[in-house]
Amino acid sequence: MRIYASFRKTMASSFAVCRLHMRGRASLAKCLQKTDAFLHRSIGTDVVIARAEATRSDESDEKNGRKSLHTLHMERQEQAERSVLISCQSSTNEKKFLKYLSKHGEINKYFFYESYGVYAVVEFANQESVTSLLEGVAIPGGSHESAVPFKSRLLSLRNLGSVDSSNQLSGRQCQPQTTIPINELIKRLSREESIDKQISSLTEAYQLTEENSRLRFLVCSLLKDIATAYFPECTIKPFGSSVNGFGKLGCDLDMLLDLDSITGRNVKLPKSGLSLEYQMKRANSERAVTQSILSVIGECVDQFGPGCVGVQKILNARCPLVRFAHQPSGFQCDLTANNRVAMKSTELLYLYGELDPRVRSLVFTVRCWARAHGVTSSIPGAWITNFSLTVMVLFFLQKRTPPIIPTLDHLRDLAGPGDKTVIEGNDCTFVSDFNKIQLQSNTETLEQLLGEFFEFYATFPFSRMSINIRKGKEQNKPEVAPLHIQNPFETSLNVSKNVNASQLDRFVALCQESAWLLQQSETSTPRGGGAGGEGAPTPWGLATLLLPSQVAGIKSRKKRRREPASERIKGLLESLKNKNQLKKS
Ligand code: GTP
Ligand code: MG
C-alpha cells in the first residue's frame, strides 16, 4: 500500500468482536447472535434491527451470487484457521501426501503451487485436525544453526528413506499465483474476435483466483498467530486490492492489524460501587500507540516469523507500516494498524465492483493499460496510483448517461442505521445492502466504454476541475495540484497529491493516443491470425493498446497524417494548440 494519511482516533468496530475461533455456518450464525447481543448492550435496538436486516440481505445477496465483504472476510478467515501451508519436495507424491495428512481428519480442499519450491495449502474440515497434525510435528535439529522454537502452521514435508517413482507424480498440478507475461496476454487477446471479448479475457487472466485469495487469507492468519502472543483477541485482515475485487495476481498484500475486536472497550463503569479497569501504558497519541505496536510486531515478524524476510519498519510514514516479503507465498506484504478509512475504501470499491460486471472489467483493463505504459508503477513516486486510477474509472462510470454506478452521496442516503460510520470526524457511511441500490439501465458495451473512457480523460479539464465520486460531478479544484481527486471519505484530502504535471501530461497523451487508435479501422478490427487462425496473431484492438511500442509511436505518429479522428478529439487538439500559443505569447 501507498504511504498516506494516518488515522488516529479509535472507533470500535462492533462486528469484529466475535470473529475468533469460528467454525462453519453454525458458528457464523452463533457469532452473529453474539454480535447482536453485544450491540444490544452497547448501542441499542436500532442497530440490532439493522444488523438483522443486514443478515437477511446478506442471505438474499448470497442467493443472487453476491456476498458482502464482511461475509467474505468471515468465511475466508475461518477457512484459513483450518489450513496449513506445507513446503513439499518436487518429488512429493500427491496420493501418499494426502493419505498421510488425512490421518488427522477430513481434508476439505488442497492445492499446490510454486514459489521458491513447491508448496501445498491444505484446508481441513475441522480445526481439531490442525491441532492433531501439529502435535506430531518435529522441531528441526541436526544442523549447525539453532532454530527459534516458534511453532506456526508453515511446515516442511520430509520424506526419509523412500524414493517415489516419477510416474506417480504426474497427477499433481500447480496453481498459478502470478499473471501471464504481457506478451503472452497480447497474443491471447489478439485471437479474440471482439474488443468486448478481449476485455473479458484480460479480466479473467489477471484477476485473483480462488486459490490465490485463500493463500492471502492464510498468510494473514499465520501472521495473526504471531500478533496474538501479545493481543490474543486481535485479527489480521487483508484490505486493498487483495479483497476489493480489483486485485491482479501478484499484487501486494495489504494487511490491517485489527485491535478493535479487543473486548472491554465498551464495558461501562457503573455509576457507583466497585468495579475494575485494566492498568495500561499510555502514549501521547493514537499514532504513537500504533507505532509502538507495529514496532514490536515488526520485530517479532523479523525475528520469529518463518518465511518472513526483508522486514522494514516504516513507522514515520503518514500511515506507519511494516513491510516485508513472505517468501513461501511470494507476497510483498504491508502490515498497518489503526487504518479504518482504508478498510472503508476497500468496502466501497468492493461494493462498486459487485454492482455491475463492467466496473471490474473496465478497471482491470485500464489498470493493465496504465501499467503496460508505465503510467503506474510499483515504486512509489509521482506516478498515478492504482487506487487513484480506480477512482477515475468509477467517476467516469458515474458520468455516463444514464450512470452505470451511483454517487457515493446516493449510497450514503440509502444507508440504514447499522451502516452509520464516522471515523475521526469523517462520515464514512454508505449502504451495505446491495438490494437497496437501484441501478439505471445503461446498455453500453465494454468496447464503447473503453473508447469513451479514453476520450473522457483526453478532454477532461484537469487544470480547473477536481474528480469527485461523492457528488459524481467534477468540482472546482480546492487547491493547486496537477491532478486533484477528492478522497471519498477524508474529503479535504487529494488522493493524487503525489502526481506531478509531467505524469499527468503523459496520462492525457496516452488517453488521446488510445482513443485515436480505437477509432482506426486498422486497429479496431481483428486482423489475420484472429480467432481460430494459425500462427502468431497480429495484435489488434485492446492488444494494440497494450503494446509498449505504441508509446514510442506517439511522437512519430503526431508528425504523420492521421485518419480523421472524432470531432471531440479534433476539438481537443485544437484547444491544446491554442493553449500552447497562449502560453508562448
Ligand atoms: P495495488 O496497486 O494492486 O496494490 O492496489 P491497492 O488498491 O491495493 O492500492 P495500495 O496497495 O496502494 O493501497 C491499499 C488500499 O489503501 C487501497 O485499496 C485504498 O483502500 C487505500 N489507499 C491507498 N491509497 C490511498 C489514498 O491515497 N487515500 C486513501 N484514503 N486510501 C488509500
Ligand atoms: Mg495493494
UniProtKB/TrEMBL annotation:
InterPro entries: MTPAP-like_central, NT_sf, RL. GO terms for biological process: RNA 3'-end processing. SUPFAM superfamilies: Nucleotidyltransferase, PAP/OAS1 substrate-binding domain. GO terms for molecular function: poly(A) RNA polymerase activity. Residues 195-353 form the Poly(A) RNA polymerase mitochondrial-like central palm domain. GO terms for cellular component: mitochondrion. It holds the Pfam family RL. Residues 553-585 are annotated as: Disordered. Residues 69-136 form the RL domain. It comes from the Eukaryota. This is Mitochondrial poly(A) polymerase.
